[in-house]
Amino acid sequence: MRGPMAWSGDGVLSIVLAQQRSEMGMSEDAAKLWVMQEFASLFSCQSKWSPEVLCDGVPAGDRVAWCVKNMGLSSEEARQRVMREFCANFGEKAGITAVKMWEEFPEAEGGSLVWSDEFDYTGPPDPSKWSCELGDHGWGNGELQSYTDAPTNVWVSDGLLHIQAKRETHGQRHYTSARLTTKGKADWLYGRIEVRLRLPSGRGTWAAAWMLPTHNRFGDWPMCGEIDIMEHVGHDAGRIHGTIHTEMCNHKKGTQVGQILPVAIEEWHTYGVAWSYNRLSFFHDGHRYLTVTKENWASEEAWPFNKPFFILLNLAVGGDWGGQKGIDDAAFEAGQVMEVSWVRVYGST
Question: What fold is seen in the domain 96-346?
Answer without folding.
Answer: Jelly Rolls (2.60.120)
